[in-house]
From TrEMBL:
Residues 31-233 form the Electron transfer flavoprotein alpha/beta-subunit N-terminal domain. GO terms for biological process: amino acid catabolic process; fatty acid beta-oxidation using acyl-CoA dehydrogenase. The electron transfer flavoprotein serves as a specific electron acceptor for several dehydrogenases, including five acyl-CoA dehydrogenases, glutaryl-CoA and sarcosine dehydrogenase. It transfers the electrons to the main mitochondrial respiratory chain via ETF-ubiquinone oxidoreductase (ETF dehydrogenase). Coiled coil: none annotated. GO terms for molecular function: electron transfer activity. Its main location: mitochondrion. This is Probable electron transfer flavoprotein subunit beta. Heterodimer of an alpha and a beta subunit. Binds 1 FAD per dimer. It comes from Mycena metata. Keywords: Electron transport, Mitochondrion, Transport. InterPro entries: ET-Flavoprotein_bsu_CS, ETF_a/b_N, ETF_b, ETF_beta_N, Rossmann-like_a/b/a_fold. The keyword Electron transport applies. The keyword Electron transport applies.
Amino acid sequence: MRPSAARLLNILVPVKRAVDYAVKIRVNPQQTGIDLNVKHSMNPFDEIAVEEAVRLRERLKDAVQSIKVVTIGPPKAAETLRTALAMGADAAIHVELPDTAPAPEPLGVAKALRALVQKQNEEAEEGGKIDLVILGKQAIDDDAGQTGQMLAGLLGWGQATFASKVDVDPATNEAVVMREIDGGSEEIRCRLPLVVTTDLRLNEPRYASLPNIMKAKKKPLQKLAPADLGVDFTPLLETLKVTEPPTRVGGGKVANVDELVAKLKEAGFTAV
C-alpha cells in the first residue's frame, strides 16, 4: 500500500508538433519562413519528456495519479497528442489555433501553460492539482529553449533545466535532478511544485505499440481556444526575411607549404 504521507503526483507534459528531425529544411519561396508542407512529428525533446513522465509512474506506482499532455497548435497537432497518449499519457488537452495562425512564441506559450495550470488547479479536487511540469528543453524548429524557464518564472515555481536524471520522492515532496552543464553535470534538490526541462541523455523514448495506439483513440482529448485561457498569441517579434545559408566554396589541395603560401597571397592574405 502507498504510505499515507505520500503525495499524489499529477504531471503535465507540454508537447509540440514540429517538422520531423529527418526532413531536410528548405526556405519557402516567399522567404518568410521554412517550407512546412513536409512530414511533422512530436518534437524529440518532448518525446523524452513524455517518456520520463511514464517512467516516473512505473517507478512510483500509485503515487502518480495522472499524466496529462497539452499542445498548442493547428488541428493537425491532435496527432501529436494521440502519439503521447499511445506512449502512456492518460488524457490530452489541445489549445487549438487556426491553420493560418503564426507559430506562438515562447512567452505566449508560457503564459498559456501558466493559465492552464492555474485553471486545472482551481478546478481540481483535493490531491488533483498539477505539481510537476516536464517539457523538452527546446524545440528543434526555433531552438529557442525559453518556454520552461519562462513558465517557472510566471508560476513562481522552482526549475530544473537540462535534466539528465530525475528522481521524485512524493513522501518528502522533493525531487533530485541531475543537470547537464558546461564541462559536466550538477545535482540539485528541488521542492515541488517544479518545472523540469529534459535533455537528450535522460532516456530513450519507447515506440507506441499498435494496441496502445488503438487504446489512445478512446482516451479523453479536450479542446480549448486561446480565449478559454485568456491568452493572446499575437507575435511580439517580426521576421523580416529568411534565407538559405551561403553555398560553401569547395576547397583544394596543395603539394607543400610554399604552394600554400603562394595561394594565400593570391587570395589577398598577408603575414602579420
